Amino acid sequence: MRRYAWVRRTRRAAVAMGRALLKEPGLVGRIRQDPAATSTCIHCNRCMPTIYRGTHCPIAQAGS
Ligand code: SF4
Q1: 45 lines ligand 1 (CB under 6 A)
Q2: pLDDT score, position 58
Q3: To test ligand 1's pocket by mutation, which of 17, 24, 40, 45 has the most ligand atoms within 8 angstroms of CB?
Q4: Each residue of 3-62: pLDDT tens digit?
Q5: Does the CB atom of residue 40 touch ligand 1 within 6 A?
Q6: Is 0.85 surpassed by the pTM of this model?
Q7: Which of 20, 43, 55, 58 is the most exposed place for a label (fewest CB within 10 A)?
Q8: What angle do CA 62, 54, 42 make, to 5 degrees?
Q9: What's residue 1's pLDDT?
């Protein structure tokens, strides 16, 4: 838990958005427009095998 010490020290929130941004690189902008917006990532982990050949979201590439 040592690596999270800066979170406790600064009292700032840490947010993980890795897969969500793979699915939708413009997500931050969409949330800025609509704070109630949510990620379209379906947490299927089909992106995991792509980490050795150019990490990407196969679902997004398929157009959904
Ligand atoms: S493959 Fe699935 S888990 Fe990975 S970013 Fe795309 S929708 Fe999300």
Answers
A1: yes
A2: 96
A3: 45
A4: 678 777 887 776 778 999 999 999 999 999 999 999 999 999 999 999 999 999 999 988
A5: no
A6: no
A7: 43
A8: 45
A9: 61
CA 10 / ligand 1 centre spacing (Å) = 31
Task: Give the type of residue at 38.
Answer: T
Dist CA 23 CA 15 (whole Å): 16
Q: CA 51 to CA 11: how far, in whole Å?
A: 32
Can you give the pLDDT at residue 46? 96
Taking CA atoms only, the protein residue closest to ligand 1 atom 6 is: 57
Query: Would you give the DSSP letter of residue 53?
Result: S
Distance 52 CA to ligand 1 centre (A): 16
Rounded to 5 degrees, what angle do the CA atoms 20, 23, 26 make?
Answer: 80
Give the ligand 1 atom nearest the CA of 22.
5
